[in-house]
Design goal:
CATH superfamily: Ribonuclease H-like superfamily/Ribonuclease H
CATH architecture: 2-Layer Sandwich
Number of domains: 1
Number of strands: 5
Number of helices: 7
Strand order of the largest sheet: 3-2-1-4-5
Radius of gyration: 16 Å
Structural class: alpha/beta
Shape: globular
CATH topology: Nucleotidyltransferase, domain 5
Helix content: 40-55%
CATH class: Alpha Beta
Distance between the termini: 41 Å
Largest sheet: 5 strands, mixed
Oligomer: single chain
């Protein structure tokens, strides 16, 4: 049902909305990982992907969303679609903002995980008018499937082209 609404909106020439799709992957979790993102605006489309030699799935889910938002010039109205409940809940339930306000603590004893990426995502969201929408993964949504392909290809790609996830590797996890 919601797919129809998105297709109609994306084909409306008066629509000033940027549609972003993102996904992340880690083989072994942790292990080699990658993200994929697709931006659509009117008839324009741009894809992003990158692999990392050692990381987690959640870090790649975050980086997919971050990459899509950071690629945009100026303030944009964005609908960001992801199959990651981690990303959706962190933003929509204001978990990440609470963690940041509490010095990146989830509670008095537990540190928030991935504060470096949550901070980047919050900053990217603040630069745009962003709404997040969850897409059930692996159900045939073409843009989500494309992001999954990009993320997995990046994770399984040439190791000499993969980046070091410095924050993750420095954590010793």
């Amino acid at each position: 049902m919601w797919i129809t609404g998105i297709v109609v909106a994306m084909t409306n020439i008066n629509d000033k909305t940027v549609y972003a799709f993102s996904d992340g992957s880690a083989i072994g979790n942790p292990g080699p990982g990658g993200y994929g993102a697709v931006l659509k605006f009117g008839e324009h489309e741009k894809e992003f992907s990158q692999g990392f030699r050692h990381t987690t799935n959640n870090r790649m889910e975050l980086l997919g969303a971050i990459t899509a938002l950071e690629a945009l010039k100026g303030r944009q109205h964005v609908v960001l679609m992801t199959d990651s409940q981690y990303v959706i809940n962190g933003i929509e339930k204001n978990w990440a903002r609470k963690w940041r306000a509490n010095g990146w603590m989830r509670n008095k004893k537990e540190k928030a995980v991935n504060p470096d990426l949550w901070d980047r995502l919050l900053n990217a969201c603040d630069r745009h008018d962003v709404s997040f929408e969850w897409i059930r993964g692996h159900t045939g949504h073409p843009d989500n499937e494309r992001c999954d392909e990009l993320a997995n290809s990046a994770a399984r790609g040439d190791q000499s082209m993969q980046l070091v996830d410095k924050e993750f590797e420095a954590s010793g996890a």
